[in-house]
Design the sequence.
């Protein structure tokens, strides 16, 4: 056994223990329901939990993430059984359709997430502090190689990579979901998600709804993780800090995201839910148990986002290198600050709104139930107060990446540094007062429509500032186009399309027609791809050598770009077009009389091509770890401090502190330097 | 009033601020009983909040110069302080959301509650904040014994508040027909709002009590000194924050509008 490659040992464990889980689930379900339901929820749930855990158990042994997952399973069952016992004592039914009853699953889900945190060992130091014991500032790394990334580490670089890997995993899962329902949409009528099928207690269209809803939320969580990944890896390096301000909190923020990712996957098999990612009541008060697991997952992911944002702000405020005044910070740091301000505060509102629905379901509290004096529109206000600014959480770091990388590849100063810095804050602040543009058709007070229309259109001003700055930066530059730059340019164009398709949705008169159509779907995929996905890929291609000491393959990178970009435009323009002629969003089927079957077929093919391009990327990502071209120096000829030291980055970042002595983006100016390291006469930058 | 320079004037400052807060609470109660003036209640609450934030939570310490050495205890404490205040900023959005819910669902009505009991628990929490401030001042001047006594009193008062709300107030309210799920839909969402707001606050009181227990136990072991007692400061600021929330929740639930 010892001689097998850890990956294949993990797969072996996955298969064996997954089958064991399936058997246990099938048996338990048989005891409860009295019949063998081979495609039922309970066997699927146990297979999921056991298989997922078994993989890490096989690959790395009972430590780190594997121990956390085992604890999560035990914690979930313990919490569920506790509630079942209490219910039995109260004379209520102890077990339900999905083995446990809904209250059992909610409490079990929460205790499971908390157990994970204790099991993985990320709170060990805090428990010692609470007992009055001191712990060392830094711990020795116990693990090396791949194992380092699957156990608790306090190093921000390790945590940044952990975030990125988890984000890529979730993007793959969310993308897979999208491919499944995109396939169903290729032609009108139901072809394979039919009403006859039954999987996890759901028929075809119900499964379509669940996958469509989960696609939304899993992608959102993966974006939050991806954002945290870039910020965690890059920001302390840009600031010249040894680590984040609170390394333990940083590790906590990452590890709480792991159970937060498991919970929505549990909702897939626990009956699913059919509300879309927004979870509006009254539909969400009637959906199956899966709804609650979804709420819990988002709630726990919210903690990750809030605490991560807190850490970023504290780090930027307190850990900057000497001489790094506010207007000499790298521009990406400004974006990180702006995004963190939103995540720190507004995230509480989505947690609160989902929590209220949870309580309404569990305890009958009538917050959103008109029959009990509640108000369903209140939910939408609370929900969008986070969920609109959330899109700026997604895109601001991406726009920061564009501004950060562009000067490097055009060899010119960034045009209008101060304006870009302030425009990030401007977008963040305006973003707080635009939420009700999602609710023009909701029946809210009519006098609210016009002010929210204008505040929304106002967002175009700071965003426009960024575009003008990018264009002016590119103007007459010495442009080179390695893969990261291709993705930066792609991001600008795609985000422009997203931006231009925005005002029609913000304007009340046109929105009344466009609301809930595929036009909206096309619009936000453009903004999110332009604002996050393209810059995320750019950032990975750009900082990959810093993290690994090797470059990703250029040919495959270019193939990735040239396959993804046209496919993506085909997909989203197609979405906008079918939306304009009447395609509703969030539905499994559409009327053949609309005459859009051909468009949908093309869109589905484009969707598959995007998937192929991402597979090429993933192959490149993992293959280059071993076989990539060595790149230990300043590969992009950047002025930024992290490129002035060898790659991969040393364990505690900079051996010698640096001092900021000039402007960050004075590319092409003679004898100018951004940073000077202690003990060297001048910067190594030419 | 300037920042206090020595122990006795620091303690005196705590007393004076407590008197201000108590008088303002009395005035709030009087305003609510005598004439139903919501703006005045808001003004009173904002003044109280300002006093607590400045003199009990010492928000001005965020602006202190912590020196150049990023590895010193002082600098790290300054960073921790920023972290704690950012957390409180974030947490206050939960309560702001609950407040928005209350305004949306109840408007200018409020649940029919035992006014005397409300005033009593409010007073208990306010007094606990006073003792917390004395405790923190004591450890700042190296008086471990006085710190432990005052923190213990704070803990008992906090526990009294928690038990008072959950076991007396909730029981009474339920007895008077204020139930969470409302067997009688016509009576509106009062119960849901009341239990949610007091429940979320009580949860924070509970975490604050755990925090107080931890620092009390650590003080017993003697790990806090006059120069190094970040744990105490954090527990104190958090405890005052819990009081700060109640400064707004008390009028929102007990004083504003008409009882139905």
Sequence:
């Amino acid at each position: 056994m010892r001689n097998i490659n850890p990956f294949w040992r993990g797969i072996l464990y996955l298969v064996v223990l997954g089958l064991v889980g399936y058997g246990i689930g099938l048996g338990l379900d048989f005891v409860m329901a009295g019949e063998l339901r081979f495609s039922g929820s309970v066997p699927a749930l146990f297979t999921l939990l056991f298989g997922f855990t078994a993989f890490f158990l096989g690959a790395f042994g009972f430590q780190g993430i594997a121990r956390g997952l085992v604890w999560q399973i035990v914690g979930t069952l313990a919490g569920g059984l506790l509630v079942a016992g209490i219910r039995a004592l109260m004379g209520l039914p102890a077990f339900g359709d999905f083995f446990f009853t809904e209250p059992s699953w909610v409490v079990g889900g929460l205790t499971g997430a908390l157990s994970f945190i204790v099991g993985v060992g990320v709170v060990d130091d805090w428990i010692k502090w609470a007992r009055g014991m001191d712990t060392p500032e830094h711990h020795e790394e116990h693990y090396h190689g791949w194992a380092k990334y699957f156990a608790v580490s306090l190093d921000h670089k390790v945590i940044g990579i952990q975030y990125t890997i988890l984000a890529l995993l979730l993007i793959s899962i969310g993308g897979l979901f999208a491919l499944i329902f995109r396939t169903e949409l290729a032609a009108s009528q139901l072809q394979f998600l039919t009403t006859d099928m039954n999987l996890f207690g759901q028929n075809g269209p119900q499964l379509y709804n669940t996958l469509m809803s989960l696609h939304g939320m899993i992608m959102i969580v993966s974006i939050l993780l991806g954002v945290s990944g870039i910020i965690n890896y890059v920001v302390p390096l840009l600031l010249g800090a040894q680590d984040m301000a609170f390394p333990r909190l940083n590790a906590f923020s990452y590890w709480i995201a792991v159970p937060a990712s498991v919970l929505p996957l549990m909702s897939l098999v626990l009956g699913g839910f059919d509300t879309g990612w927004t979870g509006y009541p009254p539909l969400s008060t009637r959906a199956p148990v899966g709804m609650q697991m979804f709420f819990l997952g988002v709630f726990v992911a919210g903690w990750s986002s809030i605490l991560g944002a807190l850490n970023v702000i504290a780090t930027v405020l307190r850990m900057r290198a000497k001489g790094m005044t506010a207007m000499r910070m790298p521009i990406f740091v400004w974006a990180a600050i702006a995004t963190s301000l939103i995540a720190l505060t507004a995230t509480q509102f989505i947690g609160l709104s989902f929590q209220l629905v949870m309580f309404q379901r569990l305890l009958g509290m009538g917050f959103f139930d008109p029959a009990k004096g509640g108000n369903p529109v209140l939910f939408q206000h609370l929900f969008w107060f986070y969920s609109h600014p959330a899109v700026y959480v997604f895109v601001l770091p991406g726009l920061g990446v564009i501004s950060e990388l562009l000067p490097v590849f055009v060899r010119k100063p960034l045009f209008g540094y101060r304006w870009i810095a302030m425009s990030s804050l401007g977008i963040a602040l305006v973003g707080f007062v635009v939420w009700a543009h999602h609710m023009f058709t909701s029946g809210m007070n009519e006098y609210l429509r016009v002010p929210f229309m204008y505040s929304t259109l106002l967002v175009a001003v700071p965003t426009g500032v960024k575009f003008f700055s990018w264009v002016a930066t590119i103007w007459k530059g010495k442009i080179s186009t390695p893969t990261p730059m291709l993705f930066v340019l792609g991001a600008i164009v795609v985000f422009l399309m997203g931006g231009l398709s925005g005002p029609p949705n913000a304007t009340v008169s046109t929105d009344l027609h466009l609301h809930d159509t595929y036009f909206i779907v096309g619009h936000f995929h453009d903004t999110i791809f332009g604002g996050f996905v393209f810059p995320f890929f750019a950032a990975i291609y750009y900082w990959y050598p810093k993290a690994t000491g090797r470059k990703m393959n250029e040919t495959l990178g270019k193939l990735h770009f040239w396959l993804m970009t046209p496919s993506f435009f085909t997909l989203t323009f197609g979405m906008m077009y079918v939306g304009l002629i009447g395609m509703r969003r969030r539905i499994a089927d559409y009327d053949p009389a609309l005459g859009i079957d051909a468009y949908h077929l093309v869109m589905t093919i484009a969707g598959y091509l995007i998937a192929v391009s991402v597979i090429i990327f993933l192959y490149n990502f993992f293959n280059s770890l071993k076989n990539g071209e060595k790149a230990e120096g300043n590969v992009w000829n950047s002025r930024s401090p992290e490129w002035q030291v060898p790659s991969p980055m040393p364990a505690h970042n900079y051996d010698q502190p640096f001092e900021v002595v000039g402007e960050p983006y004075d590319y092409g100016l003679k004898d100018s330097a951004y940073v000077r390291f202690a003990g060297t006469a001048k910067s190594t930058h030419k | 009033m300037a920042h206090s320079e020595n122990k006795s004037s620091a303690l005196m400052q705590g007393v004076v601020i407590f008197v201000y807060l108590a008088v303002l609470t009395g005035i709030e109660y009087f305003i609510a009983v005598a004439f139903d003036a919501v703006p005045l209640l808001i003004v009173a609450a904002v003044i109280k909040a300002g006093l607590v934030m400045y003199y009990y939570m010492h928000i001005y310490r965020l602006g202190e110069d912590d020196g150049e050495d990023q590895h010193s205890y002082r600098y790290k404490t300054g960073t921790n302080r920023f972290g704690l205040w950012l957390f409180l900023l974030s947490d206050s959005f939960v309560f702001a959301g609950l407040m928005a819910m209350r305004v949306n669902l109840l408007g200018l009505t409020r649940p029919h509650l035992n006014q005397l009991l409300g005033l009593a628990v409010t007073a208990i929490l306010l007094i606990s904040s006073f003792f917390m401030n004395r405790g923190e001042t004591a450890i700042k001047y190296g008086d471990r014994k006085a710190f432990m006594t005052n923190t213990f009193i704070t803990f008992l008062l906090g526990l009294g508040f928690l038990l008072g709300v959950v076991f007396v107030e909730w029981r009474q309210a339920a007895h008077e027909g204020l139930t969470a799920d409302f067997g009688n839909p016509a009576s509106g969402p009062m119960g849901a709002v009341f239990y949610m707001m007091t429940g979320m606050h009580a949860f924070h009181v509970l975490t604050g009590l755990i925090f107080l227990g931890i620092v009390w136990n650590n003080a017993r072991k003697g790990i806090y000194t006059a120069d190094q007692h970040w744990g105490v400061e954090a527990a104190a600021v958090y405890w005052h924050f819990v009081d700060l929330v109640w400064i707004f929740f008390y009028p929102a639930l007990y004083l504003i509008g008409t009882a139905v």
